[in-house]
Specification:
The chain has 89 residues and is mainly alpha-helical. The protein is built from 5 helices and no strands.
């Protein structure tokens, strides 16, 4: 894994579009619900938004765990290249 791939994985968040799709609402609804409550365009968040956020956050955690594992694996192969050869022999 190279630097660009690793940093792309690290910085790849969830877009308003992905959040809207997961909640079954429009992107505009997401943006309006994120406004300060005193803003004229503010809207209430979608029902049961907490469960969706929990699930999306869990997915992000899994992605980060995979990234960490991949980087540790690369590091191990760089530090101990002979171990890789013995394992396959």
């Amino acid at each position: 894994m190279d630097f660009k791939t690793a940093t792309n994985e690290l910085c790849d968040g969830i877009s308003h579009k992905e959040l809207a799709e997961a909640l079954g609402v429009s992107v505009a609804t997401i943006r309006q619900a994120r406004l300060r409550s005193e803003a004229k365009a503010h809207r209430s968040p979608p029902e049961n938004w907490e469960d969706t956020i929990i699930n999306l956050a869990g997915s992000q955690i899994q992605r980060y765990r995979h990234l960490i594992s991949e980087l540790y694996t690369v590091r191990q192969h760089l530090l101990f290249p002979a171990a890789k050869r013995r394992k396959g022999a």
